[in-house]
Amino acid sequence: MTIIRGATTIEMDCKEEISSAVKELLDEVFEANSLKKEEVRGFVFSLTSDIHSYHPAKAARESGYDFAPLFAAVEPDIEGGLRKCIRLMLFAEVGNPVNHIYQRGAKILRKDISEIMNIALDGPAGSGKSTIAKILAKDYNILYLDTGAMYRACGLKALRLGVDYKNGEAIAKMLPLLDVKVEYKGGKQHTILDGEDVSSAIRENAVSMAASGISAHACVREKMVEMQREIAKGMSCVLDGRDIGSVVLPQAKYKFFVTADSKVRAKRRFDELSSRGEMVDFEQLHEEIIMRDKQDSERASSPLICAEDAVVIDTSNKTIEEVVAEIKSCIQSKI
Ligand code: DC
Q: Is the C-beta atom of 212 inside 6 A of ligand 1?
């Protein structure tokens, strides 16, 4: 069971306004979530105590939302709280993520979801950015776009075709054959290469170097950056990568550069690969991380750099919870 939330406000406490505000809210909740009647299990409204003229549940029923139980209750008065506000919790059997809807004056309650929110999270390999990005996406109920996965798919293609990923000419020739897509199932990103779901295959260690190498070519970057911008334009999302704050979305309001000591990062990768049963040597992994940092930072085309307006976070001695809390408090201060 999933809960879709919503809220709206009225200016005048009268039947007409309450009815139209409730209808407008429910209409958008249904449209934005492509909801079907049979998926809905119930509607719960709450209203601030300054609303007396009409019952929101009755207003909903009269607007045709009479196919599931409706309930409404008055909220306690909270000093400084939003006035003349009607909130909704809709229970439905749908997958995540869902779109919560905040309309009229209630937008102020959730600017994080009523405005398109792009969070740029850049940093070197193993800095913890993908773990952080996944938590932020889940907590804010927005999409997570793992841009590294897209370059990994490009690297995998070159490996499969036996094309040298360092050879610019060969890669330019391969480009028209490169069919990379991202899809979302149950809120999780799946990376598709030539119609095949390669989400697991791209995580193998051999693909890491190929991804780093192939991502140095401007022609590859152009193609991937265009896709990333297209996705970010239409919806709130958190993107992690190397050039999100500097090149992909330089206008993003929330930018973070996450980093950590190379040994700490190598240890994280070591633990991750070991837990998946991949046998790796720690020292070799550390050297590879350093090489990848160098390759990613020194390439001519959009190298790994910290955007001037990004907040830098060193995760070496911090828990993920601490880092997430720090990022959220920065976001909150800008909302
Ligand atoms: O984050 P990752 O390790 O999955 O990324 C794989 C490689 O892709 C990385 O070495 C650099 C490259 N990359 C990039 O150049 N630009 C991005 N936005 C994301 C990743």
A: yes
